[in-house]
């Protein structure tokens, strides 16, 4: 065993005759780390104590449980040292400090590009000078941010750019490109989406939007309140925002059916010269409740089963079709309720049963399965 230990770690030596104290260095990736191992009199490795230099402690942070398990199961000291070196190999590879540091030219190039673009455009830069966030304002005064992740060989390699947009952010890049080119292309893309955002801004300002709860600039859908337990989901086209969007009416059949008939019969009246909101009013022959005339709380009706409005970001979208009831439910809640009733039956993905409130017939689709489960 002594020969194997000397062969694997020649700088790790016993300090006493009993060979219960070892002190020295173990070498991993041409780096030496100070270590001391204290063995009990019977030399059982599982009862050994390990003392490390501060560099080794930092490196093993997050791997302590693995080291302890290796210590407990190693048959001898040589095996433990070999396994410890394996853990260190993995830790060294995963450390961010081991990434190559860009040459000085990288930093001087970055400073030059920021001076050309303007430091007032910089919102954030990380401590490694790899990730930047640049702000931009479109012609309507909307504020936007683009995140730029630079490659080590910048500007020879194209950066990775992301932003809160409903379309992909595709950038053209050459070895002569700079952050100014990124910012200019970003502004051009923002202007191409100005009409799309104007449509959604009007909906957000003049109606009660149920979903998404906090719309982002990347969202293309709005679920708009029409009345109690009745709403319309519209999907606005980014390229042709004023054209007729995809529409889906949600609510009890006795309320939704007349609205659906009006939508189908008046579709020819859609005028691309008018706003989407005005067209929806004309085609459906309704006035949408607005912040100026109604409180949103009057439309946020709780689920009749779990007694909450939001359930894992979902809102009640299943409604009893009986006009005297009209109680809303979460799809998941109603499904679980009906599935627990002996009289309920299922045909393919539809469950048939009775409303928990009025006992009238009610149906629900099986909720989509969570891929993580």
Which descriptors would you attach to this protein?
single chain, 373 residues, alpha+beta, Ubiquitin Conjugating Enzyme, 4 domains, 4-stranded antiparallel sheet, 10 helices
What do these coordinates show?
By secondary structure, the protein is α+β, with helices and mostly antiparallel strands. The chain folds into 4 domains: 2-98; 104-192, Ubiquitin Conjugating Enzyme (Roll); 197-297, RWD domain-like (Ubiquitin Conjugating Enzyme), CATH 3.10.110; 316-365, Herpes Virus-1. The protein is 31% helix and 22% strand. It has 10 helices and 17 strands. The strands form 5 sheets. The chain has a 4-stranded antiparallel sheet. Strands 5-6-7-8 form a 4-stranded antiparallel sheet. Helix 1 (2-8) packs parallel to helix 4. The mean pLDDT is 88.
Tally of distinct domains: 4
Strand content: 15-25%
N to C succession of SSEs: HEEEEHHHHEEEEHHEEEEHHEEHEEE
* Apparent shape: flat
How much is the average pLDDT?
A: 88
The Rg value, from CA coordinates, equals 32 Å
Straight-line distance between termini: 49 Å
Physical arrangement of strands within the biggest beta sheet: 1-2-3-4
CATH superfamily of the largest domain: RWD domain-like
The number of helical segments is 10
Classification by helices and strands: alpha+beta
Quaternary class: single chain
The helix fraction, in percent, is 25-40%
Largest sheet: 4 strands, antiparallel
Give a count of the beta strands, DSSP E runs of length 2 or more. 17
CATH fold group of the largest domain: Ubiquitin Conjugating Enzyme
- Low-confidence segments, given as residue ranges, are none
Pfam families: FANCL_C, FANCL_d1, FANCL_d2, FANCL_d3
Protein name: E3 ubiquitin-protein ligase FANCL
Catalytic activity: S-ubiquitinyl-[E2 ubiquitin-conjugating enzyme]-L-cysteine + [acceptor protein]-L-lysine = [E2 ubiquitin-conjugating enzyme]-L-cysteine + N(6)-ubiquitinyl-[acceptor protein]-L-lysine
InterPro entries: Fancl (IPR026848), FANCL_C (IPR026850), FANCL_d2 (IPR043898), FANCL_d3 (IPR044037), FANCL_d3_sf (IPR043003), FancL_WD-rpt_cont_dom (IPR019162), UBQ-conjugating_enzyme/RWD (IPR016135), Znf_RING (IPR001841)
């Amino acid at each position: 065993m002594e020969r194997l230990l000397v062969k694997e770690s020649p700088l790790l030596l016993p300090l006493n005759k009993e060979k219960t104290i070892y002190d020295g260095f173990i070498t991993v990736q041409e780096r030496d780390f100070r270590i001391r191992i204290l063995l009990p009199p019977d030399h059982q490795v599982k009862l050994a104590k390990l003392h490390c230099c501060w560099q080794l402690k930092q490196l093993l942070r997050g791997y302590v449980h693995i080291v302890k398990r290796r210590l407990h199961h190693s048959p001898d000291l040589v095996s433990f040292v070999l396994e410890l070196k394996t853990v260190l190999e993995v830790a060294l590879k995963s450390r961010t400090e081991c990434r190559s540091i860009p040459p000085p030219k990288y930093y001087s190039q970055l400073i030059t590009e920021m001076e050309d673009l303007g430091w007032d455009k910089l919102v954030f830069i990380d401590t490694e000078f790899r990730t930047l966030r640049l702000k931009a304002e479109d012609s309507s005064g909307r504020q936007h941010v683009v995140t730029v992740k630079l490659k080590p060989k910048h500007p020879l390699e194209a950066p990775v750019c992301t932003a809160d947009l409903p379309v992909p952010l595709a950038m053209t890049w050459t070895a002569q490109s700079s952050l100014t080119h990124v910012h200019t292309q970003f502004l051009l893309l923002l202007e191409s989406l100005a009409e799309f955002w104007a449509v959604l801004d009007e909906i957000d300002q003049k109606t009660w939007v149920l979903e998404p709860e906090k719309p982002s600039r990347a969202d293309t859908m709005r679920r708009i309140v029409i009345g109690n337990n009745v709403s319309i989901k519209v999907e606005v086209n980014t390229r042709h925002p004023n054209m007729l969007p995809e529409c889906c009416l949600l609510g009890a059949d006795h309320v939704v059916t007349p609205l659906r008939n009006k939508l189908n019969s008046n579709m020819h009246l859609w005028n691309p010269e008018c706003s989407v909101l005005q067209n929806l009013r004309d085609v459906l022959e309704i006035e949408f409740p607005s912040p100026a005339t109604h409180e949103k709380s009057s439309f946020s009706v709780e689920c009749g089963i779990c007694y909450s409005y939001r359930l894992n970001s979902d809102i009640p979208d299943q409604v009893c079709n009986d006009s005297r009831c009209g109680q809303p439910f979460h799809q998941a809640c109603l499904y679980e309720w009906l599935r627990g009733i002996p009289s309920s039956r299922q045909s393919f993905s539809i469950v048939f049963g009775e409303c928990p409130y009025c006992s009238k017939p009610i149906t629900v689709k099986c909720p989509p399965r969570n891929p993580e489960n």
